[in-house]
Amino acid sequence: MPIFNGSKETDQFALMQANLSKFALNIENTLNKVTLKYELDLDFILIAITSSLKDYRLCYFINKVTGLRLSKVEDHEIWRPSPAGKAYFSRYADFSVVSDTEYYVLANKATDGGFLVPEMRHSDYFFLIRNFIDEEDLAALQDHLVDIPEVVVASEISPQKLKSKENLIF
């Protein structure tokens, strides 16, 4: 605590010492901060689909042309800043025990509005594939998706380049 004795120069010096000690304390506190860095596990293939079909019709046609057995599972839930709160996105899944591959179709538009991946507003659905290695099978799958008459575009996109990639983690 600075001591003020009435002299203008001494009082200014004491005030400067007090401010300097506060500054030193702030420097100590900032040096003790711990920063948590994390990396998202984006080990999946992502295909953006543009189609006028409802989610259940799209999955029906995908099942028909690919031999998959996509079925409705619990909706994908993400948290959005207030006042929107939680958002729910339709999700279909198929799990291949033989190849240990997981297939998901996610709606890009929430049941109450809003987008799963806002920077991809033109895409209606995302086809997400985990543990998928073979490039020939991927090309064949994309060809099958494009063969569905109501599918306008089905193109692979890099999840690392998306701003809201964390919305695709579940």
Structure in words:
- With 170 residues, the protein is of the alpha+beta class.
- The protein is built from three helices and six strands; from the N terminus they run αβαββββαβ.
- It has helices spanning 8-31, 55-66, 135-147, and strands spanning 44-51, 71-80, 85-96, 101-107, 125-130, 151-157.
- A six-stranded antiparallel sheet has the order 2-3-4-5-1-6, with helices on one face.
- The radius of gyration is 27 Å and the shape is elongated.
- The N and C termini lie far apart (54 Å).
- The model has no long low-confidence stretch (mean pLDDT 80).
Number of helices: 3
Average residue-wise pLDDT = 80
Tell me the strand order in the biggest sheet.
2-3-4-5-1-6
The portion of residues assigned to helices is 25-40%
Q: Could you say which structural class the secondary elements and strand pairing correspond to?
A: alpha+beta
Query: Radius of gyration, Cα only, in angstroms?
Result: 27 Å
Strand content: 25-35%
> What is the terminal-to-terminal distance?
54 Å
- Main sheet, how many strands, which sense, barrel? 6 strands, antiparallel
H/E series = HEHEEEEHE
Question: Would you identify the regions where 5 or more consecutive residues have pLDDT less than 50?
Answer: none
Q: Strand tally, please?
A: 6
Rough outline? elongated
Sum this structure up briefly.
With 170 residues, the chain is of the alpha+beta class. The protein has helices at 8-31, 55-66, 135-147; strands at 44-51, 71-80, 85-96, 101-107, 125-130, 151-157. It has a six-stranded antiparallel β-sheet, covered by helices on one side.
